[in-house]
């Protein structure tokens, strides 16, 4: 019996973005499949965040295409890419420090201009959903606390809960464990696994190799703006090209 791989979720073809003379993303052609926890790893400066920014419309690529579930989304603005089903978090966590946890949840899915108008107010249905998600990530007891007073790990959980407010099919996380204490790293890992069991596709940039190796189904390794190796964690860990990119051996 042949087993077919899951359908393609997110694909890029020749994706390229330079900053001055630096080719941050350099002709990256990658396929991430539906229903998997995909990891994107690589040394500092290898273009992972720039790749995320090109995919999610924060940055317009110089060349190449981004396709999501068979639909071209290259160069679309971030809110339209979000509407297509892709949610994301940021390497440097983005929450509004002077808003409460609950207000942050309610503004998470609002366009910037509406955010200024209505602030953190929400309909009863939205508020209900926000509270359920805060319970899910384990920070519901902090609902009325200003985000600035949360630990960095709690802010990351808040950001993840905010991403879930948009009901994304695919969730892109840029270093979810970065700067987070070990107890909360465990909780973030469990959440990713549970959400994946419920059908969400993940694309996770992460330097914490224990997390990457234990969590992901498929690992893509970036070096100098493009993939140099990919496969299941066990194969990638033993790949000489990966050791060379990381360790220079
Ligand atoms: N806005 C920018 N302007 C100029 N250069 C940039 C910009 N963003 C990224 N770069 C450069 O592009 C390259 C790739 O950076 P990027 O942040 O995408 O790497 P990364 O893989 O996410 O690294 P890290 O693991 O440290 O987060 C680096 O050389 C970086 O200095
Ligand atoms: Mg980065």
Automatic annotation (TrEMBL):
Keywords: ATP-binding, Nucleotide-binding, Transport. PROSITE patterns: ABC_TRANSPORTER_1, ABC_TRANSPORTER_2. It comes from the Bacteria. Residues 10-249 form the ABC transporter domain. It holds the Pfam family BCA_ABC_TP_C. This is ABC transporter ATP-binding protein. SUPFAM superfamilies: P-loop containing nucleoside triphosphate hydrolases. The keyword Transport applies. It comes from Streptomyces johnsoniae. InterPro entries: ABC_AA/LPS_Transport, ABC_transporter-like_ATP-bd, ABC_transporter-like_CS, BCA_ABC_TP_C, P-loop_NTPase. One of its GO terms (molecular function) is ATP binding.
């Amino acid at each position: 019996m042949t087993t077919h791989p899951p359908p393609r979720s997110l694909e890029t073809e020749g994706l390229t973005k330079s900053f001055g003379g630096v080719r941050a993303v350099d002709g990256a052609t990658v396929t991430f499949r539906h229903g998997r926890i995909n990891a994107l790893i690589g040394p500092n400066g290898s273009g992972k965040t720039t790749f995320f920014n090109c995919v999610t419309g924060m940055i317009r690529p110089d060349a190449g295409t981004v396709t999501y579930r068979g639909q071209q989304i290259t160069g679309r603005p971030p809110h339209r890419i979000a509407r297509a089903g892709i949610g994301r978090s940021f390497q440097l966590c983005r929450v509004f420090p002077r808003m409460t946890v609950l207000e942050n949840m309610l503004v998470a899915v609002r366009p910037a201009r509406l955010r200024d108008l209505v602030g953190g107010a929400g309909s009863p249905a939205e508020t209900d959903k926000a509270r359920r998600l805060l319970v899910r990530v384990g920070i519901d007891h902090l609902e009325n606390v200003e985000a600035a007073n949360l630990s960095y790990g709690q802010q990351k959980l808040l950001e993840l809960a905010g991403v879930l407010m948009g009901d994304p099919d695919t969730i892109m996380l840029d270093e979810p464990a970065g700067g987070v204490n070990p107890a909360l790293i465990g909780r973030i890992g469990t959440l990713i696994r549970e959400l994946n069991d419920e059908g969400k596709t993940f694309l996770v940039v992460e330097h914490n190799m224990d997390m990457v190796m234990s969590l992901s189904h498929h690992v893509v390794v970036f070096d100098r703006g493009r993939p140099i190796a990919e496969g299941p964690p066990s194969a990638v860990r033993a790949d000489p090209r990966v050791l060379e990119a990381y360790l220079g051996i």
